Amino acid sequence: MALHSLTLLLCTFSLSLSFDVASSHMASSSSSSCSVVTPSTPLVSFLEQLQETALQTFGNSNFDPKTYVDLPLKFTLSETHQAFQNLPRLSSNGTVSAEVLKGFINRYFKGAGDDLVCWQPHDFVAEPEGFLTKVKHPEVRAWALKVHSLWRNLSRKVSREVEKNPQLHTLLPLPNPVVIPGSRFREVYYWDSYWVIRGLLVSKMHKTATAIVMNLVSLIEKYGFVLNGARQYYTNRSQPPLLSSMIYEIYRSTGDIELVKRCLPALLKEHAFWNSDIHRVTIVDAQGHSHNLNRYQAMWNKPRPESSTMDKKSASKFSNISEKQHFYRDIASAAESGWDFSTRWMRVPPDYSTLATTSVIPVDLNAYLLGMEINIAFFAKAIGDKTTVKHFMELSDARKKAINSVFWSPSKKQWLDYWLNSGTCEVAHVWEAKHQNKNVFASNFVPLWMEPFYSDGSLVGNVVHALKTSGLIRAAGIATSLTDSGQQWDFPNGWAPLQHMLAEGLVKSGSKEARLLAEEIAIKWIRSNYVCYKKTGVMHEKLDVEKCGEYGGGGEYATQTGFGWSNGVVLAFLEEFGWPQDRSINC
Fold this sequence. Notes:
Glycosyltransferase; 3-stranded antiparallel β-sheet; mainly alpha
C-alpha cells in the first residue's frame, strides 16, 4: 500500500474517532454506544431452541450446550424448523422423548464439526531441520516430536459446503486452513492462535502460521475486528488483541515485509475498534491528569448462544429484565477477556451473580494494547511510514503513563486491575486507590511482557521480588489466582499463556535473577505437561499447579484436550531453555 494511503487510513481510524457502531454488523439498543448489541441470526436463534429442548430431554449429565449450536443443517432452516415444530410432545410435560429427538437430530443435522475437514499442512515434516537443538534428553526430545506431530491432528480446513451454503452453518468461511485448539473448540479462536503460532514457528511451519494470521485479518476486513472465534454466535465480541504480536513473531522469524504491508491496514482498523467508545474509559488520576484506558465490553445482552441454557439458569435470580441484560453483557464480556470465568470479575467473590466485567479496567488488556501500539509503530517504520510511527509512539507513551498511573501499586510492586463504580458510560471516572483490586492474579504481572516495562532494570527487580512472594508460584507452575472458587480461571489451575507471558517477560529483561525465575517456571510447567501426557496420552488445556502431572478442572465444561496453546508453549519453552540430558523429566 502506498504511504499516502496508509497515512489517510491512519487519519480515518485515529484514536479520537469512535468505531462505526451503525455498521451492517451491529445495531444499537439505545442511543448510548455502551449499549451496542450485535443482531443474532435466525439459524442461531433456532439452534438455541434445540439446545434448550435437548437439555429438557436428555438431562444435564454430560450435556454440552455448544454441541447444538455447532450442528450443520442438512435441509433449509424453514424445513428444519417446521419439522421441529411438528415433533410429538409428551402429554405429561410437553417435552420431546429422547428417541424422537435423537431421530430428528440424525435426520436433519450433520454432526458438530462435520463442516470442517482434516487437513495435512504442506509445511509439516516429521523432524524439522534445527528443531530444538538445546534439548539433549532423549525422552524429552521424543516427547517434543510427538507434541510437534499434533499440529497435523489439529489442522482443519473449512468445508466447501460452508462457503456454498453459509445459511446452513454457524461456522464461518475462512480463506485458509486453520489450527484448532481441540476437542469442543472445533473452530479457530483468536487469542489461542498466538501461542499456536509460537509453537508453529518452533516447528518451522511458517506458511501455516501466516495462513492463520490471514484468516484473522479476513475477519477484521469483514466485521471490523477479530471475532472471539469463527462462528456466527461469536460476532458480538472479540478476545485479547494479540494479532499484532502474531505478525511480529512471524516477521521476526521470516523477515516477510509483504506480510507487514498486507496486515497493517487491518491492525489500524482493529486498534480503532478497541479504542472506540465501546471499550474506552477515561480516568482522572490523583494529579488531575486524564488517561484513556480500555475494558472488555461485549456487544451483547442476552445469554451466550453456545451456553444459553447455563446463562439463563445463572440469571434466574434476577427478576428485572434490565438487570438480566446487564448480567448477560458481563458474562459475554468475561468471555471476551478469555478469562471465563474468574473471581477477578466478581464484585463479591466467589458469588458468580456479582460478575461485573464491564466495571473492571483490566491490567492485561491494556498491556496488550500497549504492545499493539508499539508493534504498529515498528511495522510502520519497517515500511517507511513516518507519520504512523510518530502517532503510535505518542499513543504508546500515553498508555505507558496511564498504566503506571492507574494500575501500579507502589506497595505491592505489581499492577492491579481497577474497579469502576459502575459499567455505565461516564465522561470520566476519578481515580481512587480504594478501587484497585488488591487480590493477587497472574494478570497483575502481564505488563512485564511488554518492552517499556521489562527494559526498566529497577522496576524488574521489584516485580521479580513481588512475583516470588506473591504465592502464585506453586509446585507445578504459576497459579491463575489465589482463590479456589471452582471457576476455571482461578486457583489451582494454571494456564499455558500465563506461564509463557510471565516467563518470557522475565527473560527479556536481561536480568540474571529474572531469567533464573523464568527457567524455574518453565521447568515446572514442562515437567507437569510431560507427566500428564505420559499418564493420559494427550495434552490438556490447563493443569493443576498444586499437583505435578495433573490436569485442571472447574468451570462450565469438562477439561479439554488437544491442545493448541499448551503444545505451543511447551515447544516455545523447550526452544528457549532446552533440557539437559542429566535433568530428570519426572515430577
